[in-house]
Amino acid sequence: MHLLERIAGIILPVFIIIGLGYGYAQLRRDTVRGDMLAANRISMDVLMPLLIFTALASKNFDVAHNLALIAAGAIISIGSGLLAWPVARLLGYDARSFVPPMMYNNCGNMGLPLAVLAFGAAQLGAAVALFMACNLVYFSLGVKVLESGRDGPRVAFWKFLANPVMIATALGMAFAVAHTALPAPVFLAMKMLGDACIPLMLFSLGVRMCDITLRSWSIGMVGAVVCPLSGLAVAWLLDCVLPLTPDQRGQMYLFASLPPAVTCFMMAERYGQEPDKVASIVLLGNLASLLFVPFGLWLGLPK
Description:
Elements: H1 2-28, H2 32-57, H3 67-91, H4 95-103, H5 111-119, H6 124-147, H7 157-161, H8 164-178, H9 184-195, H10 197-208, H11 217-239, H12 246-256, H13 262-271, H14 275-300
Helix pairs in contact: 1-5, 1-10, 1-14, 2-6, 2-8, 2-9, 2-10, 3-4, 3-6, 3-11, 3-12, 4-6, 4-11, 5-6, 5-12, 11-12, 11-14, 12-14, 13-14
C-alpha cells in the first residue's frame, strides 16, 4: 500500500495541473491561443533552456555516471520504432504516421515533472539526459521516417541542433564535463527561472489537448498501447544488461512508460502526414498514461 500511495502522490499533481490547463482552455475558448502563445514562446526560448542548462551544469549531474542511462534512452526510442513498424504493416497503417509517435514520448512536458516528483530535484539532470537522447533520435531518425517517400524540401538536422533547447543542452554538457561552476547568484537566478518551466509546461500541455480530436480513435487506441508497451519491453531487456543504479533504473522505466509527445502532432501537421490520426494517438496515449505511468513507476521504484 505504501508503494501505491507513493505512486499516486507522484502522478496526481501532474495530472491536476494538466487538467487545470485543459479547463482554462475550455473556459477561454478562442482567446486561449493568444493567451498561451507568448507564454509558450518564453517557455521554449528561455525557461526550458535554463532548466536544462542548470540541471546538467549542477554539481549533482555527472556525465560519465549517466552514460548508460543516456544510451538506454536512445535505445528505447529506436527500439520502440522498430517494434512499432511491423504493427503498422500488419494493421495497414502508414508507417510515417504511426512509427514516429512511438519513438518520441512525452519526456519533456510530462517526464521531467514526474522525474522530479519521483526521484527528487537532484535527479533532474538524469531526466534531462533522457530527454536529450530522445530528442536526438526523433529529430534525426524519426523525422527521416516522416520525410520518407515524399517530394519537397527536407528539414536540415542542423536547424534542430541550432534551437535554444539544444544549445542549452550542449552548453550544460560542456560545463558538466569541464566541472566548471557559474557564480552562485547567477546560477541561482537561472535555476529559479528554469524551475518555473515545469508547471508551465504541464499547464500548456492541458491547453494544447483542446486542439486534438478523436476522429481516428481506432489507430489512437492502438498507438496508446503500443507506445508504452514497446518502450517497457525494451527497458526490461536493457535492465538485464546495463549497469544502472536504482534511481537510474527507475528513471528508465518511467521514461519507457510515457505516452507520445504533443510535438508529434505538430510535426504531422507541418508535413501534412495524417495529422488527425496522429492527434488521436497523442490524445488517447496521454489518457492511457494514467494506467501505464503508474505501471512504469511500479516496475522502477524500489519495492
